[in-house]
Structure formats: structure tokens, C-alpha cells
Amino acid sequence: MKSQASADRLRRTLGRADLRAVPESRRALRELLRHWGTPGRSEVAELLTSELVTNALVHTDHEAVLTATVGPRGLRVEVRDFVDREPRPRAPSTDDGTHGRGLVLVESLADGWGVRKHRVGKSVWFELDAAAA
After folding, report:
1. pTM score of the predicted model
2. 92-121, pLDDT tens digit by residue?
3. Residue closest to 87 by CA, chosen among 112, 117, 124
């Protein structure tokens, strides 16, 4: 996993299907957000980031790129993958165990979220407002 970080930005390349990237991404984001917002807000950011990273690695079987940026308006996290199939939130069923809840969590806890198409693949992103932090 390649990583770049500055005072307000984190960028990591996540290896194909390497689920070790999930806790490593959470730790890197925690470090980035060390002085941002309230502890509860940072924990929400970690949770949502781990959901997006997990989805990208499990559902695409390709590498992904995580980018997190802290700005005056808040936090924006994007996870880019290289598969065109769009993710959709779905109501989890009792048969799914813990699967199927990631985007539902993102939809309910983020101040904004969406999918941005690229020429190859897409980015799934969420934002948390600084005003609420």
C-alpha cells in the first residue's frame, strides 16, 4: 500500500483485495483527523471510510485509491475503483448477516455522499461538514 499524507490530505493506493487496507486506512484517517472535529465525528469518518474501502476491495477485485481531504468546509473522503458498476444502497435482510449495510450507513451518517463516474471506474465519496464537527 502506497501512502502520501500532508497536514490536510491523505492519499493511499490500496492493493487488490487486500483487506488489511481497511484497518490501515482507519488508522491513517485517525491521524489526519487528530485535530479535527469532535472524537465522535472522527469516529463516524473512520466508520464510513472503512465501509467504502471494504466495498471497493470486496466488490471490484481491483485495487482502489483512497483520498481524504480536510478543508474549511469539512472532510471529504473518496474511494476510487476501476470498475464501472455503480453501488446502490439496499435494505439489508436478516439473511445477510453483517453484509449489505455499508452504503446505508454512509447514506444515513454522512452530510453528503455520491458516486462520480470516471472514464474508467468511479469514485464513491462522502462529506462531513466542519460546522457539525
Report:
1. 0.85
2. 555 555 555 688 999 999 999 999 999 999
3. 124
Q: How far apart are CA 71 and CA 64, in angstroms?
A: 23
Q: Mind spelling out the 3-state secondary structure of 109-133?
A: HCCEEEEEECCCCEEEEEEEECCCC
- The H-assigned helical ranges of 1-133 are 21-32, 39-60, 102-109
Q: Which three cell numbers stand for residue 89?
A: 444502497
The one-character DSSP state at 82 is S
Tally of residues, the chain: 133
The angle formed by the CA atoms of residues 54, 15 and 77, to the nearest 5 degrees, is 50
Whole-angstrom Cα distance, residue 27 to residue 32? 9
On the 0-12 / 13-18 / 19+ scale of CB atoms within 10 A, 26 is middle
Encode pLDDT of 21-64 as tens digits.
999 999 999 999 988 877 788 999 999 999 999 999 988 888 99
Which amino acid, 10?
Answer: L
